[in-house]
Amino acid sequence: MIDLSGWRERAGGARQLLALALRNVLRHRRRSAIALGAVVFGVVAMLLANGFIDWVLWAMRESTIRSQLGHLQVTRAHYRAAGAADPFAFLIPANAPVRAAIAAEPRVEVVAPRLSFSGLASLNDATLSFIGDGVVPEREAAIHRSHRLDTSVNVVAGRDLADAAAPEAILGKGLAENLGAQVGDRVVLLATSRSGGLNAVEVTVVGLFQTVSKAYDDAALRVPLPVAHALLRVDGDHTLVVLLDETRRTASVAARLQSALAPGGFEVTPWYELADFYNKTATLFARQAQVVNAIIAIIIVLSISNTLTMSVLERVGEIGTALALGVRRAQILRQFIVEGVLLGAIGGLAGVALGVAAAYAISAVGIPMPPPPGMGRGYVAQIMVTPRLVLEAFGLALGTTLVASLYPAWKAARFPIVDALRFNR
After folding, report:
1. Is residue 409 situated within a structural domain?
2. 308 in a domain, yes or no?
3. What is the β-pairing status of strands 198-210 and 168-172?
4. What is each CA distance from 126 to 110, 129, 218, 322, 337, in whole angstroms?
5. What total of structural domains would you count in the chain?
6. Model confidence over 113-150: pLDDT tens digits?
7. Are residues 113 and 236 in the same domain?
8. Which of 3, 118, 204, 329 has a Cα-to-Cα distance from 84 of 20 to 30 A?
9. Taking the CB of residue 78, how many other CB atoms lie within 10 A of it?
10. CA–CA separation, 116 vs 333, rounded Å?
C-alpha cells in the first residue's frame, strides 16, 4: 500500500500556511486594498493596451492579405529577383498543371491569377504612370471578402469589376484624383507588349477603390484579365494568388506546396515575406508593448514590496515570538512570500475579470481611429482578448508579486530573535 501520511501532512501544512497568509492580508484591509488596486490596475492596463495592439496588428495583417497579397503567391522560380528586367519570361501558361495542383490542396479556398504590368494612363491632357493588375473579378471579390473586417478593397465610387472580359477598369482613388478621372470616363492605357512595341487599349472607368495603403492607391488600377492579355499581347499570368481558410496555416501549407511545386520550376512565397510595412510595424508595436509591460511590472513590484515591508515592520515582535517558539526561519520566509503571491493571485483574477469586461464593452462601442501614416483611410478599432493574453496578464500579476515579496520576506526571516523581541518596546 502507498503511504499517504506524509502527503496529507504536507497538504495540511500548505492549507494552514495559506489560511494564515489570508488572515494576515485581511488584517490590514486598507493597505491590502491599495496593493490589490495596483495589481488590478496593472492587469487591466496590460489587457487593454496589449489587446488593442493585437487587434491593430490582426486587422493590418488581414487587410494586407485580402487587399493585395493573399496568403500565398505562386510564381515562376526567380520571378521576384529577375522578373522586373524581363517579366514576360516568367509567365505561367493558362493550361499549366500547377493550377490544378494548388486547387487540390485542402486548405486552399481561392486561386486568383494576376498579370502585372505598368505603363501610362491618359485622360484629356493628363498622362500619368501606373501599375496595373489583370484580374479575374469574381475570384478577386472572393479574396477581398471577410466576415470580420470591412472590405479590404473599398470601392468608394461606382462599382467593382463585374464583367470578366469587358474593357473596363477600376482606379485607385489617388490615381484617379491625380489624373482627373471620374466614373464613366474613358481612359487610354499604354504599355509595352511582349514583342517590344507599344500597344494601347481604351477602358471605361467603372469605379474608384481605396485600400489600406495610400501609396498603392496613388498608382494602381485593375482591369479584367483578358483586357491585360490584349494590352500586352500575351497569354498567361505572372502570379497565382492563393487564399487559405485560416491565416495561421500559412507556413505549413506553403511548405507542402513548395515541396510539391519546386520540381516544376515554381516557388511559393508566403504573405509575411512580402509585407515589409507590416513586419516593421509589428516589430515597433512589440517593443512598445514590452515598455508598457515593464512599467506596469515596476508599479506592481513597488506597491507590493512597500505593503509587505510595512507589514514586516509592524510584525517584528510577532516574528521574534514565533522564532523563539521554534518556528524556522524558512517558514517565516515562506509565509511572507505566500502573502505576496496571494495578493497577486487575487488581484490578477480581479484584474482579468475587469479587463475582459472592459475590453468587450469598449469593443462594442468601437474606438474611432484616424488614418495611420501610409494608409488611405481611418478605421474603428477594437480590443482583442485572447487566452494567451489573459494568461500573460495573470502571469505578470503572480510573477511581479513573487519578486516583490522576496526582499521583505528575506528581511523578516533574518531578524535576530533578541532584537525582534525587543522591537517596538
Report:
1. yes
2. yes
3. parallel
4. 37, 10, 15, 91, 75
5. 2
6. 999 999 999 998 899 999 999 999 988 888 887 555 55
7. yes
8. 204
9. 12
10. 69
Q: Which of 250, 223, 3 is nearest to 119 (CA)?
A: 223
Q: Are residues 52 and 175 in the same domain?
A: no
Residues 330 and 65: beta-carbon distance below 8 Å? no
Statement: the pTM of the whole predicted model exceeds 0.90: no
Does 257 share its domain with 330? Answer: no
**Rg of the chain on CA atoms, in Å:** 32
290 in a structural domain: yes
Between CA 120 and CA 240 the distance in angstroms is 25
Query: So what's the pLDDT on residue 9?
Result: 52
Contact 92, 98 (CB under 8 A): yes
What gap in Å lies between CA 98 and CA 107, rounded to an integer?
A: 16
Whether the CB-CB separation of 64 and 281 falls below 8 Å is answered with no
Q: Residues of the chain whose pLDDT is less than 70? A: 1-14, 17, 21, 146-152, 372-377, 419-425
Same domain, 240 and 283: no
Range of the domain at 356: 15-63+279-422
Give me the pLDDT at residue 256, please.
93
Same domain, 249 and 192: yes
Q: Is residue 284 classed exposed, middle or buried when 0-12, 13-18 and 19+ CB atoms within 10 A define those classes?
A: exposed
Whether residues 110 and 59 fall in one domain: no
Q: Are 310 and 413 part of one and the same domain? A: yes
First vs last Cα of the chain: how many Å apart?
A: 54
227 & 348 share domain: no
Domain-located, residue 270 = no
pLDDT digits (tens, 9 = 90+) for 51-93: 999 998 898 888 888 878 889 999 999 888 887 778 888 899 8
